[in-house]
Write a structure and sequence with these properties.
Chain A: One of its GO terms (molecular function) is ATP binding. Chain A: It comes from Chelatococcus asaccharovorans. The complex is a heterodimer of chains A (388) and B (221). With 388 residues, chain A is α/β, with parallel strands linked by helices. Helices cover 31% and strands 28% of the residues of chain A. Chain A folds into two domains: 172 residues, P-loop containing nucleotide triphosphate hydrolases (Rossmann fold, 3-Layer(aba) Sandwich), CATH 3.40.50; 100 residues, ACT domain (Alpha-Beta Plaits). In chain A, strands 6-7-8-3-9-10 form a six-stranded mixed sheet, sandwiched between helices. Chain B contains nine helices and no strands. Classes of the chains: A alpha/beta (388), B mainly alpha (221). The complex binds adenosine-5'-triphosphate and magnesium ion (MG). Magnesium ion (MG) binds next to helix 1 of chain A.
């Protein structure tokens, strides 16, 4: 399918540096004024954030964290109460109504509940932004047909939204958002109403669009799986503030903020196996062992450190669980082990691992003696070539 | 029944249709935009004009709460001004239209308020102007509901049109009262009631079918 070729690089625009900001939040705050019996709500505070041209930036946060408010500031659906939101250098809030409408045509948006017109067919829904922009019937046809092709709905051209599945509706939403050739795509929980498999296919479509059309994407979600599936950069928002931001791989492998950890806890690789979680205690008991989480990042993911520990310290290491995974295209392994809780052995093991570039996290203690035999020695969810 | 009576019933039916059709046309012409405005002009809404919204709301409510017979009589000077006379079928259109307009406005308002707010949001995000949002999103999406509302309005107007016989409006209601009741001709009364039932049934079925055809929110094979 070469349906993507319809989008030639805009010749009128000068070549732009790759790290140039398309969207930029500068000290942004948004407070919803008190009204009636409701008190004022500080939805966003102190937001500094940059979306670079061609990037996919994911913003993750709990319900009510301020994600929708954040994304709505970009196309001026909300106005900041402090600071500025710049799109290609233009302060969105200062644009007169007419120019704002013009700007919005260069910003596509997709929604959790798709927001398609039930009275219009697939074709006519995708045509709507072009009609609004005053395009001719012929121009609309030349634009819409390849878009339908791009999102893989050629056979649904004349169907109404009620006749489509959730994933198909979101494909229409995406095609509609692309109709006016935007420079940024805003995605507000676009996959939250979809099952994991459909989510995957929609994320793949977005990734394709990002790669082939060089379209910048700002995506908000409450699911870590969405971030790891598509974003390279991520910001964690909690209670209206950005508490952590950076490279997706770094954030997944070295989360610093408790909120980030909470999101990661739900991720398969980070969760403790149930039989460990049940027995884990904060303090050492009689006969208990220390439980460590060892994190292998990138190039270290295949180091045979466990056998090195066993040899160097002459101890037995119990493997309680672990996975090897890829995040943002880089390998990432987690291993949960128990080592004897002796004097300063724990300190020395930790130092040994840290010196080899691994992250070590002490999780607590576990009494293994009683059910050593019944507990599975290791849950080999992924291959552990380095264990051998 | 004599051929004369049958001719009378036919011409009265035409009178009724004429009055109802004209009143519906006028009521829709004014009531539709009014309803759209009522649905979009509260504080913070698309056309945000809270003062105009409340004033209009009060007028609409006042008109709707006045019993039709009282409304008809009390606006006679206005009717004379508009129609040149206060008696006859054409004059009867005036009170019917006056009653239909706020009724239709409220029904249209209701249908438009049913439209998912997310669609307004999506249209704004596309750079649509308030008028474009009205014309391309709100009215088309509300159309199945508006059609049902108009059907209801027409059926109500058929009922109201029987009352304007009091001021010499003519039509089926007038015929029923004058022949069926005052001259005690039960067969005329029965015929009038039958024609009215058929009219209402027909219009309701037509409205339902049209609304169903326009409604793409549900799958139908
Ligand atoms: N128009 C508004 N008026 C008043 N308060 C608002 C308004 N919009 C949002 N808020 C408040 O601002 C806060 C952030 O809301 P927002 O919709 O941005 O959260 P969110 O992160 O998108 O949540 P969710 O994941 O549930 O969609 C909430 O406390 C919300 O109640
Ligand atoms: Mg939200």
């Amino acid at each position: 399918m070469n349906a993507l070729s319809f989008h030639p690089p805009d010749a009128a625009q000068p070549p732009q540096a790759a790290d140039e900001a398309v969207v930029r939040f500068e000290g942004v705050a948004k407070t919803f004024a008190a009204r009636g019996r409701q008190t004022a709500v500080a939805a966003l505070e102190d937001i500094d954030l940059t979306v670079r041209r061609g990037a996919i930036l994911g913003v993750i946060g709990r319900s009510g964290a301020g994600k929708s408010t954040l994304i709505r500031l970009v196309n001026g659906l909300e106005k900041p109460t402090a600071g500025r939101v710049l799109v290609d250098g233009t302060d969105v809030a200062r644009l007169p109504e007419k120019d704002l409408r013009q700007l919005r045509r260069s910003i596509g948006m997709i929604f959790q509940h798709f927001n398609l017109l039930s009275s219009r067919t697939v074709y006519d829904n995708i045509a709507l932004p072009l009609e609004i922009a005053g395009a001719s019937r012929e121009d609309i046809r030349q634009r819409v047909d390849p878009l339908i092709e791009l999102v893989g709905l050629a056979d649904k051209r004349s169907r109404y939204p009620a006749e489509l599945s959730g994933g198909q509706k979101q494909r229409v939403g995406i095609a509609r958002a692309l109709a006016t050739r935007p420079k940024v795509l805003l995605s507000d929980e676009a996959t939250s109403a979809l099952d994991p498999e459909t989510t995957r296919s929609i994320l793949d479509l977005l990734a394709t669009i990002n790669a082939e059309l060089k379209l910048t994407i700002l995506l908000i979600t409450h699911e870590m799986a969405v971030i790891r599936g598509i974003a390279r950069d991520v910001a964690v928002i909690d209670n209206g503030r950005i508490v952590e931001k950076g490279d997706v791989f770094d954030l997944f492998t070295r989360p610093r903020h408790p909120t980030t950890r909470t999101f990661l806890a739900a991720e398969s690789g980070r969760a403790l196996p149930a039989y460990v979680a049940e027995r884990l205690t904060e303090r050492a008991g009689p006969g208990s062992q220390a439980v460590l989480r060892i994190i292998f990042r990138g190039s270290h993911a295949t180091d045979p450190v466990l056998s090195q520990i066993t040899r160097t310290f002459a101890i037995d290491v119990n493997i309680l669980g672990g996975t090897v995974d890829a995040i943002a295209g880089r390998p990432f392994g987690t291993l949960i082990v128990a080592v004897p809780d002796e004097a300063d052995l724990l300190k020395r093991v930790t130092a040994f691992l840290t010196a080899r570039g691994l992250d070590v996290e002490a999780l607590g203690f576990i009494a293994l003696e009683a059910d050593r035999a019944s507990a599975p020695a290791a849950q080999n969810e992924g291959g552990h070539s380095h264990v051998a | 029944m004599s051929p004369e009576i049958i001719r009378l019933i036919a011409s009265s039916t035409l009178d009724t249709l004429y009055m109802v059709a004209a009143a519906t046309a006028i009521g829709t012409l004014i009531g539709l935009p009014l309803g759209v405005f009522l649905a979009t002009s509260k504080r913070g809404e698309l056309l945000s004009a809270p003062l105009a919204n409340s004033i209009l709301g009060v007028i609409v409510n006042a008109t709707r709460s006045t019993p039709f017979i009282i409304l008809t009589v009390s606006i006679i000077p206005f009717t004379r001004l508009v129609a040149g006379t206060s008696i006859g079928t054409t004059a009867a259109i005036v009170p019917l239209a006056v009653a239909a307009t706020p009724f239709i406005a409220r029904l249209v308002e209701g249908s438009i308020r049913e439209v998912d707010q997310g669609l307004i949001e999506a249209a704004r995000a596309m750079g649509a102007s308030p008028l474009q949002i009205l014309a391309k999103v709100l009215v088309p999406e509300a159309l199945p509901g508006i059609v049902l509302g108009l059907t209801l309005a027409i059926v109500s107007l058929i009922g109201f049109s029987a009352i304007v016989g009091v001021v010499g409006g003519g039509g089926l209601g007038d015929l029923g009262i004058r022949y069926g009741y005052q001259r005690f001709m039960p067969d005329v009364m029965a015929a009038v009631v039958l024609v009215l039932i058929l009219l209402v049934q027909g219009i309701q079925s037509l409205g339902d079918a049209l609304s169903r055809k326009l409604n793409k929110r549900v799958r139908h094979g």
